[in-house]
Write a structure and sequence with these properties.
Number of helices: 21
Oligomer: single chain
Largest sheet: 5 strands, parallel
Mean pLDDT: 84
CATH topology of the largest domain: Hypothetical protein af1432
Radius of gyration: 22 Å
Distance between the termini: 56 Å
Helix content: 55-70%
Order of helices and strands: EHEHEHEHEHHHHHHHHHHHHHHHHH
CATH class of the largest domain: Mainly Alpha
Shape: globular
Number of domains: 2
Length: 405
């Protein structure tokens, strides 16, 4: 018999608590539910019993949802943390970025609530499974959340964001500024004139994309100091990730959802960098098997290690506190059908974008020469209603790679 999931709901309004009690009654055979009227009460409950998930209202007197989940993250890091907020509270809810795994809008139906909680729990169970933990346990010194990105994230959750302050945070790091300006002025963004400083870049890119570019640029910088296994090229790895990110952003529709797709595309193969630098012997063994058998690398990794680069990368992104949508897209970008769902999501966009980046990349040099091209899961794409869009997405990818050539 499947063990019941334990969920703690927190809201300061008694009528909301009463409504939750009625709404959740049909789920009593699947969930064990506790209810709290305040942040302090929730913390007391968490000290007395183990919980899988906490769902907190955002606006509460004394201790709001962001403050509560910050403490929960410190004291009970394994609990899935979800913010429940109304449309008018979106600005406030943004303060919970980094401590909340998911954001839900009020009102929320039992079906949607159940699906989102189950999906979040399933993701954590997969990434915390013994094979992943054993592999991660062999990797000393996983890189922490990049410092400049952390400072940017803190600056961006204020109600009145100061663009000049955002630009100045990046400009304090001359090397990072140089790399970002090089990227912004590349064919990737097709600017009519060169951008000369981060203040111009901030106005052109927008805050969200600047933040995400900072994270990815800093992330790749942390690996530059390492010695890579024979045949691995960091520059080609970065080029492939950038191409996948651009394709993902365009097929997702530009700004907004496209910014999230860009970040997921840039980071989808983070686990490959971790394996190449922290597990070089296993990396080379896997490369030899791929070269001999022609099998997809992620399947050979799973057979040898019990996990693969996608799950290892997702594990690290989860530690960094990135949203579940990006963690999911990373974890399942080779095998989207492993995550039970029937809706077109960021996961499918990244799955398609990374495959098209492989197919249309005209460079002769590959980051991992032995790795076969990524394979599209056409059956799954039909299930989520994305199959009919493949032709247009291929045209987008072909156009982007032609411009980058």
């Amino acid at each position: 018999m499947t063990q019941k999931k334990t969920i703690l709901f927190v809201d300061d309004e008694q009528n909301i608590i009463d409504g939750l009690r009625r709404m959740l009654r049909p789920l009593r055979h699947e969930w064990r539910v506790a209810l709290a009227n305040s942040g302090p009460e929730a913390l007391e409950i968490l000290e007395k019993a183990d919980f899988d998930v906490i769902v907190s209202d955002m606006r509460m007197p004394g201790m709001d949802g962001a403050q509560l989940l910050t403490l929960v993250k410190e004291r009970h890091p394994d609990i899935v943390r979800i913010i429940l907020s109304g449309f008018t509270e979106i600005g406030q809810a943004m303060r919970a970025i980094g401590v909340a795994h998911q954001f839900l809008s009020k009102p929320c139906s039992p079906e949607i609530l159940k699906a989102i909680i189950q999906r979040a729990v399933d993701l954590r169970e997969r990434l915390n499974a013994d094979p992943v933990r054993r592999a991660i346990g062999d990797i000393d010194g996983l890189p922490p959340l990049p410092e400049t990105f952390r400072r940017l994230r803190e600056a961006l959750i204020t109600e009145d964001v100061d663009l000049d302050h955002v630009a100045s945070i990046v400009e304090e790091d001359a090397s990072l500024t140089s790399k970002l300006l090089q990227l912004v002025n590349s064919s990737l963004f097709g600017l009519a004139r060169p951008v000369k400083n981060m203040h111009e870049a901030t106005n052109f890119l927008g805050i969200t994309l600047l933040r995400d570019l900072t994270l990815t640029t800093e992330t790749f910088r942390t690996f530059e100091k390492f010695t890579f296994p024979k045949g691995f090229s960091l520059s080609r790895h970065m080029a492939h990730s950038t191409l996948a990110a651009q394709i993902a952003r365009e097929i997702a529709g530009g700004r907004g959802p496209g910014d999230e797709a860009f970040l997921a595309g840039m980071l989808h193969d983070l686990g490959t960098l971790v394996m190449a630098t922290k597990m070089p012997e296993a990396f080379e063994e896997i490369a030899q098997v791929c070269a001999t058998t022609g099998e997809p690398r992620f399947l050979v990794e799973r057979r040898i290690l019990g996990t693969n680069h996608a799950e290892i990368g997702a594990y690290l992104l989860g530690l960094w506190g990135l949203p579940d949508s990006i963690v999911e897209a990373t974890a399942f970008h080779h095998e989207p059908a492993l995550l039970p769902h029937t809706d077109l999501s960021l996961l499918e966009i990244v799955h398609v974008a990374t495959s098209l980046a492989d197919e249309f990349d005209t460079s002769e040099e590959l980051a991992v020469p032995e790795a076969p091209l990524a394979i599209l899961d056409l059956a799954h794409l039909k299930t989520v209603g994305a199959y009919d869009q493949l032709e247009s997405w291929c045209s987008i990818a072909r156009s982007i790679t032609a411009e980058a050539a």
